[in-house]
């Protein structure tokens, strides 16, 4: 794939510039993240679908221009002097742009570790940190003589997304893109101070709070102790949507109790679930706003005060910013290609700004909108809530996929679903459509969807592709070791259950891991992309591939030497 090289390479704007687009053309932009200019009268949106930046005049409440600068833009970060940095997770680049006289130009493009997600920048704008999801890496880049150069890179045990730089303490806080891990790194050398875990997933945004003594974040919590019945969903026991403040002291202490000194506000109450926090902003006075992607709402509350109000905005809001005077909130309505303006005190949407006309959506794009919609009972969750962007959160859920309660099972990834039929741990659904109906109606307790909508959702799921193997992304592949592991995989008869090229089979097998309801036979998930997943097995009993091979000796006919174990793991990491 183009752009997979991870050597930092900068290209000046004379080579690749910004394309000014016709504002009247019909397209799908999907504003994903936003930034305000220093004056506060202009808004820039990083558009995920079109790879463009939209420029909005907030005083006139109209879009001034749209400029295509990349293939897909997942974030935008402000630098001094009206420069901005964008992440392009398709081109595997960061892009520096400049705004002058309502025109956008590209200053530089830099290759970074693949699938960049977010950027944290020092105050002078000359040192930045980039999170790269699938390689599980953080890169530090420094600007010298107007050139970005990578000066440090570290690999984490989880896939990072959100970042927060705390310069007063020389700290970089990193949040897991899927599960509940939080790392604190020394900003100077990226040395790990602590990696802690709490039962959360879909962590969104990180904000300094309490004069830098705490970090605020939005997240979801899924309980494997609750049943996916009407009662437990109604009371928010299955899935909660929360804002939490964690102390920096706890985040920097290994194996700390993150609940000590923390506080939490739950967004949602019986009858009004308000699912999927996607963005958050906190005002100086303690007011906060949270965009709720599953229910098309903006939640408004105040720290250390009771009461949360919800304001209807556009479809799947993904980001929110306060105006400079903190009286207004600007919301990115990703599936409407609009910006909503909300009066925070009046708690009402007072204006909507169009980024341009939307074209007709394909069946898969219609399915994407269904995937992110709060289809569950009372809107507590969407498909994305458990399957983050189509992947998985590493947690377990007790639902009726095996026709019973009492045996929670690990949530499966939906990437490359064509590899995995039949579906579910027990292999009871022959098609994606059958599994979709079961998930929405039995697991989420939502209203039945039409056959057409199930087809659309299945079409979207078929577009979810696996990233490259992790050993390729981390540049750790040893071809000789992979070849030895592949031969061992065949010799040990692993291919009987995990047959290439999909590395699964449609049957069920008793692998000695019976669940709490007595189920003995399970359908093997595909091993393609297995190193991007974990923990492993239906009961999450093996945290790593080393545990699967070395401790559990999963269906191995004989003991393996240390070299054989390493070779087999190298082969699995290559899939």
From TrEMBL:
It comes from the Bacteria. Keywords: Heme, Iron, Metal-binding, Oxidoreductase, Peroxidase, Signal. GO terms for molecular function: cytochrome-c peroxidase activity; electron transfer activity; heme binding; metal ion binding. The keyword Zinc does not apply. Residues 362-465, 480-575 form the Cytochrome c domain. This is Cytochrome C peroxidase.
């Amino acid at each position: 794939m183009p752009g997979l090289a991870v050597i930092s390479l900068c290209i000046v704007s004379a080579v690749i510039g910004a394309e000014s687009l016709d504002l009247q053309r019909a397209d799908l932009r999907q504003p994903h993240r936003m930034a305000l200019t220093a004056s506060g009268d202009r808004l820039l949106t990083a558009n995920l679908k079109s790879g463009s930046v939209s420029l909005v005049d907030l005083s006139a409440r109209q879009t001034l221009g749209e400029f295509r600068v990349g293939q897909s833009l997942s974030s935008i970060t402000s630098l001094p002097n009206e420069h901005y940095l964008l992440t392009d997770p398709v081109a595997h680049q960061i892009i520096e742009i400049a705004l002058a006289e309502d025109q956008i130009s590209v200053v530089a493009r830099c290759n970074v570790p693949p699938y960049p997600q977010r950027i944290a920048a020092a105050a002078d704008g000359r040192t930045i940190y980039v999170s790269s999801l699938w390689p599980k890496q953080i890169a530090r880049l420094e600007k010298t003589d107007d050139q970005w150069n990578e000066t440090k890179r570290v690999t984490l045990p989880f896939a990072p997304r959100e970042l927060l730089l705390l310069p007063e303490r020389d700290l970089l806080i990193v949040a897991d893109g899927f599960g509940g891990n939080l790392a604190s790194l020394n900003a100077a050398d990226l040395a790990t101070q602590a990696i802690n875990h709490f039962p959360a997933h879909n962590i969104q945004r990180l904000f300094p709070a309490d004069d830098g003594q705490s970090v605020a974040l939005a997240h979801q919590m899924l309980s494997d102790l609750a049943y996916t019945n009407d009662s437990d969903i109604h009371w928010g026991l299955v899935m909660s949507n929360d804002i939490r403040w964690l102390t920096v002291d706890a985040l920097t202490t290994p194996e700390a109790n993150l609940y000590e000194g923390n506080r939490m506000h739950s967004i949602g109450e019986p009858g009004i679930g308000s699912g999927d926090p996607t963005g958050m902003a906190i005002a100086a006075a303690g007011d906060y706003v949270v965009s709720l992607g599953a229910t098309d709402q903006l939640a408004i509350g105040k720290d250390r005060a009771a009461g949360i109000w919800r304001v209807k905005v556009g479809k799947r809001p993904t980001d929110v910013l306060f105006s400079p005077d903190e009286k207004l909130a600007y919301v990115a309505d990703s599936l409407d290609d609009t910006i909503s303006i909300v009066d925070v005190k009046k708690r009402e949407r007072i204006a909507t700004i169009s980024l341009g006309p939307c074209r007709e959506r394909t069946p898969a794009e219609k399915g994407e909108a269904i995937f992110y919609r709060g289809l569950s009972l009372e809107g507590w969750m969407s498909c994305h809530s458990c399957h983050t962007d189509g992947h998985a959160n590493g947690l377990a859920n007790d639902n009726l996929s095996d026709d019973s309660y009492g045996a929670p099972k690990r949530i499966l990834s939906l990437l490359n679903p064509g590899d995995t039929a039949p579906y579910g741990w027990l292999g009871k659904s022959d098609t994606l459509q059958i599994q979709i109906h079961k998930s929405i109606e039995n697991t989420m307790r939502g209203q039945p969807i039409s056959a057409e909508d199930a087809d659309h959702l299945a079409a979207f799921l078929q577009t979810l592709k696996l990233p490259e193997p992790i050993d390729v992304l981390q540049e750790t592949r040893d071809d000789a070791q992979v070849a030895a592991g592949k031969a061992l995989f065949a010799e040990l008869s692993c291919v009987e259950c995990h047959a290439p090229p999909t590395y699964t089979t449609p049957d069920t097998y008793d692998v000695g891991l019976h669940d709490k309801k007595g189920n003995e036979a399970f359908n093997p998930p595909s091993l393609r992309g297995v190193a991007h997943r974990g923990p492993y097995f239906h009961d999450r009993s093996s945290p790593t591939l080393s545990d699967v091979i070395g401790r559990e000796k999963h269906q191995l006919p004989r003991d393996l030497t240390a070299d054989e174990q390493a070779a087999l793991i190298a082969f699995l990491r290559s899939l």
